[in-house]
Amino acid sequence: MPPESTDNQGLRNPFAKLVNRLPILSPLLKRDFRLLWFGEGISLLGSQFHFIALSWLTLQITGSGLALGTVLMVGTIPRALLMLFGGALSDSYSPRRIMIVSNLSRAVVVGVIALIVFYDVVELWHLYLLSILFGVVDSFFHPAFNAIIPRIVEKDKLEAGNAILRGTHELSFLIGSAPAGLLISAVGMDLAFGIDSVSFILAAVCLKMMTGFRGKAPLSADEFHLSKRPVKLANILSDVKEGVRYALGKPALRAFILAIAVIDFSFSGPLDVGLAWLSEHRFVGGATAFGTILSSFGGGALLGTIIAGVCKFKRRGLWLATLGVILGTGLGLYGVVPNVTGAAILSVFMGVGVGIFNIMLISWFQKEAPSRMLGRIMSLVTFASVGLMPVSFAVSGMLVDVHAPLLFAVAGGVTLAACIYLFSVRAVRAID
């Protein structure tokens, strides 16, 4: 394959002028980044069908918010337990290969769900088992994904690269959630799961087509292969411990990792379980209402992601803490919105805040982490994000069946407490 500089020549006339006007698109000049972006865009779109179908399937089988919370919970347990191992592997071995294996494995798991739904033999225990298997293979994908981005995008373009990838994630909510809800209502859930399975296969194909160049220089003889050490548990454990010690020894890293754990605990269950419950029991429209709310959130987050990719924020530490306060307040308001219109409007504003927050924070972590520890630091961040999800889903499932406004009020209050902690840390306030 020709190097990136040759590949870019074919884009000069139709694309380079657009990049000059919109610098946020500059990472798309790289072939490997385009393949990563396109493959993950397809996969993310398929995931919208998967998430809504799984939520609705569980509610149809049981009618219980607690059951939905526990189905989502069991998938996050192996994801949380294995996330740090995935980060250690990504620092020593090929992130691209890890992502390919994970995508193909997830395609198989979701394909099985599609088949048992199609033949109408699905039971609740099937969803528990398959959610666990999905969580196992999913745990290795995300650290590899976060580790591969700085290897194919220059450091000064990380915000733009993350904005494109994260913006695609939010765009998938915007254009995928509502159609997914309509499709499930009109046709059924087996097709939705089938679409997600195929999307994972297409994403794996795109990864396979990557050539492994960073600018003009190849990374190594084996694309993104960084080490030839044998895969041994002792080596992996040693690498994990080294990464944890480094992160916890840096005050700003430590503060944000702790805050992420608390904030994502407060958001995960209330948004996934709580909004599905409200759509079923309070709002009119059911699955369509749920899809509309998620699409609104995605639209706002897409706008926030673009803002973060284009604008250069000063005093980012203070910005992040302030955004957290705003998001905590908005989270509490979900419990009192009377209809789907109010929830959708609130979701737009929440999405803008989340989009800005995520891009600023992820890019800062990628720049702050030493390159040899990038996978481990990012896996630790992801571990903090998902580690308490099982508890969040279970608690949210119980609380929403008792009193939905209380669920969102508590979640908002806990988020505010985490942001007050961020304001109190000098190293956070000093981040420019």
Q: How would you characterize the overall build of this protein?
A:
The chain is mainly α. It has one domain (21-215, 243-429): MFS general substrate transporter like domains (Growth Hormone, Chain: A), CATH 1.20.1250.20. Helix content is 81%, strand content 1%. The chain contains 17 helices and two strands. It has helices at 4-9, 12-21, 31-62, 65-92, 95-118, 124-152, 158-186, 189-208, 233-248, 251-281, 287-310, 316-333, 340-368, 374-386, 389-402, 404-424, 426-429; strands at 213-214, 217-218. Strand 1 and strand 2 form a beta hairpin. The protein is globular. The two termini are 40 Å apart. 57% of the residues are buried.
Short description:
The protein has helices at about 5-10, 10-20, 30-60, 65-90, 95-120, 125-150, 160-185, 190-210, 235-250, 250-280, 285-310, 315-335, 340-370, 375-385, 390-400, 405-425, 425-430; strands at about 215, 215-220. The chain has about 425 residues and is mainly α.
Question: Which properties best describe this structure?
Answer:
17 helices; Growth Hormone, Chain: A; globular
SSE run: HHHHHHHHEEHHHHHHHHH
Q: What gap, in angstroms, lies between the N and C termini?
A: 40 Å
- Overall 3D geometry? globular
Category from helices, strands and their pairing: mainly alpha
Order of strands, widest sheet? 1-2
Low-confidence parts lasting 5 or more residues at pLDDT below 50? Answer: 1-13, 213-228
Question: CATH first level: which class?
Answer: Mainly Alpha
CATH structural fold name: Growth Hormone, Chain: A
> In total, how many beta strands?
2
